[in-house]
Q: What sequence folds into this?
């Protein structure tokens, strides 16, 4: 009778631990998805600002064409091509910012200020996303999560190469 009671308690504790672990992993996956959604929104806003700068009167036609192409490529890139497109936009913005550093038009100065603030937000969002992905991968690497397949069919979260770029 005592052995059955002890077995029952151990079984209940084990089931509770597995349930708790699965819930924790689910929250981590949600954190990754939320951080990516936030980062994606900021990157889309950056592409929109790049298009506004490209169509401003101050940018020369060649820079405008380069920036427009990079911005549209970043906005429309598939998940697989996203790193390349975002890196290209970062490079194009870096080239154009040196040209626009002498801007005197208040509208262009406001766009440059907004781009600078947005870049700072993107850096923070990247750090949050990388932390979320690292935490999730660390938890998923534990034996109990692999043994009991607590991740289910959720794909392994990943970071993108553009997150290592200096924005």
A:
């Amino acid at each position: 009778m005592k052995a059955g009671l002890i077995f029952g308690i151990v079984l209940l504790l084990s089931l509770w631990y597995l349930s708790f672990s699965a819930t924790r992993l689910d929250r981590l996956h949600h954190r990754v998805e939320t951080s990516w959604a936030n980062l994606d929104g900021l990157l889309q806003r950056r592409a929109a600002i790049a298009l506004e700068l490209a169509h401003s009167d101050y940018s020369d036609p060649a820079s405008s064409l380069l920036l427009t192409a990079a911005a549209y490529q970043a906005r429309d890139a598939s998940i697989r091509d996203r790193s390349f497109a975002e890196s290209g936009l970062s490079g194009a913005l870096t080239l154009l910012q040196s040209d626009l550093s002498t801007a005197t038009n208040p509208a262009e100065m406001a766009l440059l200020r907004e781009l600078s603030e947005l870049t700072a937000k993107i850096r923070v969002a990247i750090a949050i996303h990388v932390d979320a992905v690292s935490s999730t991968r660390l938890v998923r690497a534990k034996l109990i999560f692999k043994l009991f397949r607590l991740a289910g069919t959720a794909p392994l979260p990943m970071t993108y190469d553009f997150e290592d770029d200096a924005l």
Summary: The longest helix spans residues 2-54. DSSP finds five helices and no strands in the chain. Residues 111 and 117 are 10 Å apart (CA to CA). The two ends are 66 Å apart (CA to CA).
